[in-house]
Write a structure and sequence with these properties.
- This protein has 15 helices and 23 strands.
- It is globular and about 115 Å long.
- Among the domains are: about 130 residues, Jelly Rolls, CATH 2.60.120.10; about 60 residues; about 160 residues, Roll (PH-domain like), CATH 2.30.29; about 45 residues, no CATH class.
- Helix content is about 45%, strand content about 25%.
- By secondary structure, the protein is of the alpha+beta class.
Length: about 575
């Protein structure tokens, strides 16, 4: 149901909202002015249903005042996936497609919306290819963001853009397993029907080789499908997952962005993809091999500028609120206001948790080289280091098992059965304990990057513990190197972290360049929190100075018999 509040939205205000909208960021001034005249303002009361899932897509909306919630149906019922504020848009799918709505839009507060109908948009006969490119990316992103689980998003955060690498990258990675599958198939045919027709060598080759190739292809598909690049209303994020091995999330707050660029290779120019490089003052986030890279880069830049404008408005609003609180407390105890504690910089909160059992501890995150838990990123040494430690006991165990099998088969009759089996089992048990010890030693040698520090933890099984740590804000430099043939072949190396006159080392970690970037991003987040704390402290101090001046001026006016009017107060 629609309501009229008896107020007009100025044409200039509509034009300013369109200029800040990522959809219309590349439209020239004259066309944008004409588009602004096609938008109409409509008021809604709190709780009004703007549209529901299944409704016909007839118009697009831009939020002018108030808040709107977008909800989608899932297994647990309807849940909110976006909470929109001034300048945000929704219903954009109506301008390109006539599909029914697949989500609900509800007025969370009294709000005013700018809306344009499909007929008015189509009536505008100018070339709007840049608008349609942006709409296509944003519509596809909204649909994908509903399908993908992103539990790490904060409550007031939602996705603007989300995409994967170009499909050509997936197909390129499939070439090697497909060729291998063809070779295995040809070998199986030759073995079964030409070379050894009476045997089962061909069937065995196909039965073993082809399922492994299929698993390889599924592994490649899983990795491609679970690598996302996204832009929220707060940050730019790259999520990378290598099944059972590696998980990474690199991000940069929008407020730290300095520039957005595009880099395209020759292969990318052929297939239509490029890298979008987001440069920040704490490092770069490189979004690899994206289709429609020009449009995505333009959208990131637009969301970045919108974030800057919102931060300025939020800073002014917080300053006004804090100053008003100081002035409102004039009638109370001014001393209590001056001694009110200031919120400290964010620190990680540790919650009590039941300790896992030995087996649960031993085999949790069994083979992962990087994982995140409770806000901390944990790295382990590469598998190559573990293999170097356990190859000898594994070999001895295999040889001992071979001796048992040979003895049971009737060979080695000169050796007595029972003592031989007992000795072999004893050797195998010792080798097993040796392997478990080496695995536990490898598993306990971890490197962590928490919200506020870097930690090098080396703990020997049933032995000593060595722990070195340093605050992130004290890190001076971060370097890495790959040494030797195996380091380059398996992509592992050592990351050196300089802190004052000491140096922490993350030894033999997988993909050391990404570890370096992780630390850089965590440093940026930590410095950003410290900066926020300093700004809040400064805001508190300035507001206290103004309030003190206000109190002193009022006292002087009272002593001199000069009335203190509301106009003077506002001044």
């Amino acid at each position: 149901m629609f309501y009229t509040w008896g107020m007009q939205i100025d044409h200039q205000e509509i034009l300013e909202l369109l200029e800040q909208s990522p959809i219309f960021i590349d439209v020239n001034e004259s066309d944008l002015n004409r588009l602004a005249s096609l938008f109409q303002a409509q008021a809604y009361n709190q709780g009004d249903q703007i549209f529901t899932a299944g409704d016909t897509s007839e118009m697009m909306f831009i939020l002018c005042e108030g808040q709107v919630e977008l909800e989608v149906e899932n297994k647990k019922g309807r849940s909110t996936f976006a909470s929109l504020n001034r300048g945000d848009f929704f219903g954009e799918e109506a301008l390109l497609y006539d599909n029914p709505r697949y989500y609900w839009a509800t007025a969370k507060t009294d709000c005013i919306l700018l809306q344009i109908t499909v007929e008015n948009y189509l009536y505008f006969d100018q070339d709007l290819s840049v608008v349609e490119d942006a709409l296509e990316v944003l519509i596809r992103s909204r649909q994908l963001s509903i399908q993908v689980s992103l539990p790490w998003l904060s409550e007031d955060e939602f996705v603007h853009v989300i995409t994967r690498r170009h499909p050509a990258i997936f197909l390129g990675k499939c070439i090697l397993p497909v060729v291998l599958g063809l070779v295995i198939s040809l070998a199986a045919v030759l073995l079964q029907w030409r070379w050894f027709p009476e045997g089962i060598y061909g069937w065995s080759t196909a039965g073993i080789g082809l399922p492994l190739v299929m698993l390889w292809l599924l592994w490649i598909y899983f990795n491609w499908r679970n690598e996302y690049f996204l832009v929220t209303n707060k940050r730019v994020v790259w999520i990378e997952k290598v099944a059972l091995i590696y998980e990474s999330r690199q991000e940069a707050p929008l407020r730290t962005v300095m520039s957005v660029g595009i880099r395209q290779s020759r292969t990318g120019s052929i297939f239509g993809y490029a890298d979008v490089v987001v440069m920040t003052y704490v490092g770069n986030v490189r979004l690899h091999d994206l289709a429609q890279s020009d449009t995505i880069a333009s959208l990131i830049e637009s969301f970045w500028h919108r974030s800057e404008a919102r931060n300025r408005r939020e800073e002014a609003r917080l300053m006004d609120r804090m100053l008003q609180e100081k002035l409102d407390s004039q009638g109370g105890s001014s001393e209590s206001t001056r001694t009110r504690p200031i919120r400290q910089a964010d620190q990680p909160q540790k919650k009590g948790r039941k300790a896992p059992g030995f087996l649960a501890w031993l085999f949790s995150d069994f083979i992962r080289l990087r994982y995140e838990a409770d806000g901390a990123v944990t790295y382990r040494k590469h598998w190559f280091v573990l293999i170097k430690k356990v190859w000898l006991p594994c070999l001895l165990m295999a040889l001992t098992l071979a001796v048992i099998i040979v003895h049971l088969a009737g060979f080695l009759e000169s050796l007595p059965m029972t003592p031989t089996i007992i000795a072999a089992l004893s050797v195998m048990f010792i080798c097993f304990i040796w392997i478990v010890y080496q695995y536990a030693d490898w598993r306990n040698d971890v490197f962590k990057v928490t919200l506020d520090q870097v930690i090098d933890l080396d703990r020997k099984p049933l032995g000593k513990v060595r722990r070195r740590s340093a605050p992130l804000e004290n890190v001076l430099s971060i370097e890495y190197e790959r040494l030797g043939f195996w380091g380059f072949l398996f992509n592992f190396g050592t990351v050196y972290i300089s802190v004052g006159n000491t140096k922490l080392t993350f030894d033999h970690v997988y993909n050391p360049s990404e570890v370096q970037q992780d630390i850089f991003y965590r440093m940026g987040e930590r410095l950003d929190k410290l900066h926020e704390f300093e700004v809040e402290t400064e805001r508190e101090r300035v507001s206290e100075w103004i309030a003190s001046y206000h109190r002193r001026a009022e006292e002087l006016r009272k002593n001199q018999g000069i009335p203190f009017s509301d106009d003077q107060n506002e001044t």
